[in-house]
Amino acid sequence: MRQMAARLGIDVDEHRWPRLVQAATFESMRSRADTTVPAGGPEHWIDPAAFFSRGTSGQWRDLLDDADLARYAARVRALASDDLVEWVHREPID
Predict the structure, then answer these.
(1) Element (H, E) at 68
(2) Is 4 in the same domain as 23?
(3) How many H-runs (helices) and E-runs (strands) does the chain carry?
(4) pLDDT on residue 88
(5) Do residues 70 and 87 share a domain?
């Protein structure tokens, strides 16, 4: 968080860091899902807390078969540059 704040040029008082770090934990964000989930209202999610399913990266892959994954990779590659794709995805997508 400190690196991101520095990169964005945001000055944060030292005494505020513990509270900010706590607020950014998985459990804290999940407990406030109505306000932390993108488009977190009930019009988009049956249960906004489900957005924070397990707290692991890539769990969505379990929901897709090989054809779905290939379509996903093709769409991502069509929309984003290689460096962005590599930054967003920690593992190769195709």
Answers:
(1) helix 66-79
(2) yes
(3) 6, 0
(4) 85
(5) yes
Read off the DSSP letter of residue 77. H
pLDDT (0 to 100) of residue 41: 64
Integer angstrom CA distances of residue 29 from 21, 26, 46, 66: 11, 5, 17, 32
Contact status, residue 34 vs residue 52, Cβ threshold 8 Å: no
CB atoms within 10 A of CB 66: 7
Question: For 60-87, how does the pLDDT look when each residue is reduced to its tens digit (9 = 90+)?
Answer: 777 788 999 899 999 999 999 999 998 8
Range of the domain at 46: 1-55
What are the tokens at 31? 């407990």
- Rounded to two decimals, the pTM is 0.51
